[in-house]
Amino acid sequence: MQKVFDALTTAFRHHGGELSKEQYAQIVTHYTTLFEGPDTIFILLQASGYPIVETASGAYRLETYSVPYRDQRYCVIDIETNGSKPGTSQVIEIGAVMIERGEIIDRLETFVECAFLPEYITKITGIEPTDLAGAPTRRAALTALREFMGDAVFVAHNANFDYSFLTASFNRFGLGDIGNPKLCTIDLAKRTFESERYGLAYLNESLGIESAVHHRAYSDAISAFRVMQKSFETVPAHVKTTDDLLRFSVSSKKERGKKNASASSLQG
């Protein structure tokens, strides 16, 4: 499904955030092999968290293209795992906060049942095998996270790790790919404020972020949210929508220079 997400996002951006029914159908039938048709794919897209909606006229709209980034819902997530590779490791703790208009409106925090916990993971996280005994199963915990995320933007510090690990974990239990747009707070921080380092522990200290403990999922999710708040203080004026923010967060220095020059000329 990742090719469908990417192709649709590119097409939405090219067509001003909206696709006709015919344009949408052409893309999804090209990139999928399912026989159910575009309508079923639409249901699967929404179930995966891809922020697509059908308009009253029968067209399709990408919500993040028009929503002001400060009004967007963000799900800030952190996971702890018992190893680095999802093929041989698993999630052992999940922490997530749902953000809307800059405020925490909901939270999710849970251990995950696990039979094998290496000693070095306990030393890093402080999580003991007894913490995981009797915790929700992987299927139950991952299903709860999938439902909690909805179609909010997926936010994490070093988001590629959490995103790819969870995608693999979701697929293992039949929950499908993650279609939620992804925002990395490291990428965003590097483009909005100067710091000697951008690791979460260093930013906690340098920004005065009060964190209960490092390398615990819920605490790190809160810290990533605070880093995002700090970045929002200096996001350029030309960044207005969520889609603008997502593109800005991965833009090159050259691209940002062109945007700033264009914005200055318009103001002049």
Give a description of the structure:
The protein starts with a helix and ends with a helix. The strands form two sheets. The chain has a five-stranded mixed β-sheet. The protein has a three-stranded antiparallel β-sheet with strand order 1-3-2. Helix content is 47%, strand content 16%. The protein is built from 13 helices and eight strands. The chain folds into two domains: 65 residues, Arc Repressor Mutant, subunit A, CATH 1.10.10; 160 residues, 2-Layer Sandwich (Nucleotidyltransferase, domain 5).
In terms of topology, how is this protein built?
Layout: H1 2-14, E1 18-19, H2 21-31, H3 38-47, E2 52-54, E3 60-62, H4 63-66, E4 73-81, E5 91-100, E6 103-111, H5 119-125, H6 129-132, H7 138-149, E7 153-156, H8 159-172, E8 182-184, H9 185-190, H10 200-206, H11 217-232, H12 242-249, H13 253-267
Parallel strand pairs: 4-7, 7-8
Antiparallel strand pairs: 1-3, 2-3, 4-5, 5-6
